[in-house]
Amino acid sequence: METAALVAPITGLELFQDRFLLTGEGPVLSVYSLLPRPNVGASLSVLQHYRIHGIRVRSRDTVPTQSSTVSENNSASTSSFYDLAIFGGKAVRLVRLHLECQDVETLRLEALGPLLELRDWALDVRWLSSDKQFLLCVALAHNAALLLDSTTGSALVHCSCLEGCLLYSALLLVHDSWADTVLVGGTVFNQIIIWKPARGDEMINAGHKASIECRLLGHSGVIFSISYLQENGYLASASDDRSIRIWGVGTLGGPGGKCGDPNPTCLRVLYGHQARVFSVRLSGRYAFSGGEDGACLVWDLIGGGKLIRTLKGHRAGGVRSLAVGRGTGDGDKWVATGGADGGVRLWKVGDGEEKKSLEEKLTDLKFPGPALPKVVCLVGGEEEKTYWSRFLVCTDRGTVFQYSSGSWETIWEGPAEFSSYCVMETVTVLVRNSDTLVTLCAVGNISGSIQVFPTSSPLSDVRLTGRPGKIHSVIWKKETDNLYLLASGAEGFVCRWCVEVEMSENSSLVLSVEPLSPFLLPLCSKRWLTAAICLRRHSNKVLWVCGDRRGSLLLFQEGENVELNKTDHEKLGEGLQRKEEEERDSAFRPLSCLFGVHGKHGVTSVCEYQGLLYSTGKDGCVRIFRTRREDGEFRLEVLRVQRACRGMEWLEKVFILESEIKTGEVPEDAIGEEPREVRFVIAGFHGVHFVVWDPVRQERLMAVSCGGGHRSWSLWPSHTRVWPGRGALVFIKQGAVLTSQPPGEMLGCAGDAGRTGGWSLRDGIHGRGIWCVCRLGRIEETGFDSQARTGSSKSYWEIVVTGGEDTSLAVLAINPVSGTIKVLSVLTDHISGVRTATAITRLQGETLSALVLSAGGRAQIQCNRLLVAWDRQRLAPSCQVIQVASHRLDAQWEKKRNRHKTVKMDPESRYMSIEVLQEETGCVLVALSCSDGALRLFSVNEGENQIDLLWETFYHQRCVLCVATCSLQDDKGNRSRLLLSAATDGNIAVWRLTESLSVPAQNSSGAAASPVPCLVIPAHQSGVNSLAVWVEKLGQQEDGCLVTVASGGDDGQLTVSTVRAQHPEDGELVGSRGFSQIGDERAAQDNPSNQFQVRLHSQFSIPLAHAASLTALKLLSPGLLVSTSSDQRVCLWRVSGTSISHNGALCSHVADATGLAVWEEEEKEVDEMMGFDAVLKETVDPVCKSSEEEETTDDPENPAEDGDISTASCEDRKKTTKVGWILVCGHGLQLLRLRNAGMDAETWQKKK
Length: 1248
Hints:
The protein is mainly β. Among the domains are: about 10-60 and about 80-115; about 155-325, Methylamine Dehydrogenase, Chain H (7 Propeller); about 770-780 and about 795-885, no CATH class. About 5% of the residues lie in helices and about 50% in strands. Strand 43 and strand 44 (about 510-520) form a beta hairpin. The radius of gyration is 35 Å and the shape is globular. The chain starts with a strand and ends with a helix. Mean pLDDT is about 80; it is low at about 60-75, about 560-580, about 665-675, about 1000-1005, about 1070-1090, about 1165-1215 and about 1240-1248. InterPro entries: tRNA_Anticodon_Mtase-Reg, WD40/YVTN_repeat-like_dom_sf, WD40_repeat_CS, WD40_repeat_dom_sf, WD40_rpt. Keywords: Cytoplasm, Repeat, tRNA processing, WD repeat.
């Protein structure tokens, strides 16, 4: 077995020369080049099964070398190298980083010598600066120090402290020799101790231990990290008590090994983290701390220790490692953070910056009185991408002010009917037949009038008259060459005009307005328009998708038969009295309506990109939907719902990420005929903050303290619908006009990325534990560019779905060759942790279609359809999510009124395991095990978007941990299906299912009878966590089938039970409705030959298969099992006859392993195709070798193999070999490759 991809907590970081960043992820060392832009250079697995906790650099002079080959331009090549000491756990290893410069700078990592294993945990390692040899000082966890000759691996000196306590952290301060070394340790007793490992050879040789020179008291928790700054004699400590303490200790280390002041004092106690503080670094006037809350805080020590900046880019689980650079030439410092989610973020922190994080500093524009501002809008077009400087403000007296070049001016004063109430909206358009940009402003009043005027020429205004009554909203919409104005008035009428701007002969602006047929909103409360967008389809049909204040999405279509003539236009413009019936007949009514889909608080925006529509509302959801034509009519169809972060209910807009936009290219659908969903960010209000939220990375990109959502605001760059990485907000608060950035400031610069949201060198996946994993299949890279990048061989991406404790379901694409992992989508529909997931997959051309079922806490089931394909435009995998259905057992309780006044008697259940029983056209039957002791059967109807509970049984009377199923068929054609369930009592129940699965069995009285299992197998002393089942036919001489059931439990035991199942002789079953009933026993006694017989044939086990509870067990191939446990071992087991043999093992880098996915693939020319030089190899026990003869057997546990039909010739089949893949998940995930997995049991015995 060998590692192909790995995601684990980043536990080691080191910045050096402000050019390179070194990261430690598990045993893998990676180096990133920071200039000109951060990118990964090389990776190498160095510590085997240990996790990297520290990286120490020892530099050497650059050595110019003559190029071995003469290039055409006769360019010389230079090379330099840096020696690194990598440590973690009980291991230390030397690695050399080679930097080779010839046209392009390349990085290469080389391991120097073998792994050096110690007898104690290494907490810190330092190079001795004056020694030309490879001498290292090592701080050990049991309060000792070691002088190590890394070349030979021998310990030259070992010294212990007189106080033999356990250390949680240590800091070595070295100078020229061992005698100058000082050790600062953080003890388990919440203390910091300072002592010298070398106080004289006489004491060490005599067996004496070094005494403590100084002790620092004050923390109420263990010390996780220590940092020392020699410039001012500051010592910083980070603790479990959520605090950082700054101590004035004076001079530590240096010549003679000084131990600082005898009575040091605590200068600062810094509180700001919401959880434990894992790491702290001192640099200049700043202190940097990283905590379990996922934030890196920047403290100003000179300014009283105040918090000046928050760097937050990791999910739950926190910042596990932190590195700070010395400073670049422009005065900025690199700051790198590594998270428990496997992500790496890079930031820039300036020397003179004030309080500015994602929460920007506000600027007051000093709006002149005495009128109060009510509405604010930005003035600018798509061409103004970097600067913002102009705003329009409408007051409560109907006056419009313009802010430009730092001053306010009045551009329009409305008549008396505009003084009490008004709404305003602006748009920037091109003048017809000209390149001049002009901004139009529309102001509506309470009497139904709208004033439209250019801001540069307010006298060229036009008065429009809508339906009498209050104008609730005014909306501008641009569509190709047309500009539309919509005004939502009384009684649900939406008046529309087509507006054009022309230049007259005397160079003055002229507005021409053409009335259009109005829209009529359906009857409801709050009957006015809040959002609209115009769509033009290939059939030349003009569609309008609108959102109203009631939360509904409406679809309108313009028709020729209801177009008004000139006389009707004049009557409508003059506001003449018309009959109500004639008005309603002339208005367009919606073709399709999704009533109240966004809740009763209304829709806030609707936008369209590449065929998909995105709507936001005050229900905290973004709905992705599309228009679909059925039976000649257009309909709205919601594909999925994306929720923002918890507590963010007021959503305003959706912005497409700038990285998703390919300039100069025509967008194309990446998923067959299905439009492609792109990555977007959500803008809205979270409490008193205006927030821009990334739903995939689960992080804030911008936060402005504005006071909440009930105010007028405008966001740059809202006119482009694209999020460039930075934005600015202008809003009204308490009669003042405020901005988050000073007007006129350049925005969206690439150089500011590190100062705002930072660079994501690697995206995190799950911040907390991953509980389940399900493999969907693989997709192939297509297109000319993909073949050029990968050579002649094909490149594939494995698609998997993971669910975890953070309540999210992540869709991942894994490249086994490069080890790259991409997050395609993150589903946040679950309200509790995701315990289990399964999928039904099939290929539709080049698209992988999967019906994914996930379940977990709060008795919730989610069903989604995933469409995954290779995107030729972005050259990356792409995923479209379509939500099918959802189900909760206590859904009626959530709808009950005044439920807070009653007591809920039924405890909330958790779904522990899910298994697909039967797949039919449009309907899927699934079984779920529940924590309340129930075994439940559900039907999933994708066509009706519904999940129904068919029946449930409480036979186990305790928590049911897992379920499994298998199908039986004998030589006579008799078919049956078995369902197996296991609970915390260690018993496995075998149930028989038949064709009438969906009909619960009833007894003679008509009441539903309680089903009982056919067989109960005692397998373990405690809970059974996982089941693996496969079937073998006995042949014609013996009737029936042999079912092998492998189980793993909390007792660490692996048990294999063999069950013999036999159909009746005549093929007719007694009582064959659903499950075996209690009433069947009497009929079976009268006629035993007509009974379906299931009996235990044999049972054998390995008591200590793992050192801890066996958490997952899967069948890779018939007779070959894969198991994992919280002891971090992945084991292979060969089941043959009545014996179990250990086939191999590997120490995984994933802690608390809980999930497992396995599959097999047939591959040709494996060595060339997989690129073994790029695979991280591990030293493991020998496993099975190749077999020339392989037997193909149906694997019920591996549905991903269905449909893989080999069309190669017999000669080609001999060249193919089966490759097994194992994906382990827990606190991270690891993909393992197993060579020659297709060996059957007989060949394995011969090889042994």
